Amino acid sequence: MRETPVGIPQAITITAMIVTATTMRMATTRTVTTMMSTAITFTVMTMTMTITIMVEASMLTRSTERLVSEALSSAEGAALYRLLTWLSPAFPVGAFAYSGGIEWAVEAGDIRDMPTLRNWLGAMLSEGQGFCDAIFLVHAYRAASCYEQGKLSELAELAAAFVPSRERQLETLSQGRAFMDTVRAAWNCPELERLIAGFDDHLAYPVAVGMVGAAHALPLGAAVHAFLHALVSNWISAGARLIPLGQTDSQRLVVALEQDVVAVGDRALHASLDDLGSATFRADLASLRHETQYTRLFRS
Predict the structure, then answer these.
(1) Does residue 244 have a cis peptide bond before it, meaning omega lies within 30 degrees of 0?
(2) Cβ of 114: how many Cβ atoms within 10 Å?
(3) How far apart are CA 89 and CA 237, in angstroms?
(4) Model pTM?
């Protein structure tokens, strides 16, 4: 059969129809692809939102559980309340009247400003009175917890003797007695009366705090850190009045000594009585020379 030749106009028309059909097919394919892509994207977004909501809900649940678990029990709340009260500057032990020799150090020029006071207190805390007092507190607490009256008596005698000057002995014994008397008058308990029986006035401050802490079943670690914080706060208060320092600088000192307090407390919890010892000769000398200082604001 003989083919009929196609003219140019007809060829153009046929070509245009083919292109149009191809274009429509491609457009249809793109539309379908776009619709599928949109559907997939929407599905992924929906899944992502669902997962996000589930994760956030899980985090909220865990956060709520953590808040509940972090709430203090009745016993923990009572222990914290007592520590904050007993080792507060407002508790009537007369701590504000003592400087631990800082008054002489200021007059002698050893302490002149915030940096020199920080160095002095850091040494007293880590290598002197602070560390030794913390050891006495820890061992008094443990002896009192077991009602070892003989060991308590030995600790009380050792702590009263383990001071470099008459003024420091007055400081620790007067505060110890005031602390014990006030607690017995306002916070007494049978365990404390059993422990205090037979003791005379020679009850050093850290030993008294250890005995009271054990009688009231306070956490030992918390008691040690609270005691050291009170000691440092009183020293800073004395320095602030003597140098003098402003309130902001005083708070900067509290911040600067935070890690020292934590470290000394941890050391004391693992120390034996053989670890007692002082390497702060200048501070010990200051407490001795304060006894004959001409002008004094403090009793030590």
Answers:
(1) yes
(2) 20
(3) 10
(4) 0.78
How is residue 148 written in tokens? 């070892």
Burial of 64 (0-12, 13-18, 19+ CB in 10 A): exposed
Question: Do the Cβ atoms of 120 and 260 come closer than 8 Å?
Answer: no
Mean per-residue pLDDT over the chain, rounded = 84
Are residues 133 and 206 in contact, defined by beta-carbon separation less than 8 angstroms? yes
DSSP-assigned letter for residue 177: H
**Running DSSP on this structure, what letter comes out for residue 300?**
-
Closest CA to 119 of 297, 288, 237, 282: 282
Confidence (pLDDT) at 127? 96
Q: Are 88 and 209 in contact (CB under 8 A)?
A: no
Candidates 196, 174, 170; CA nearest to 185 is 196
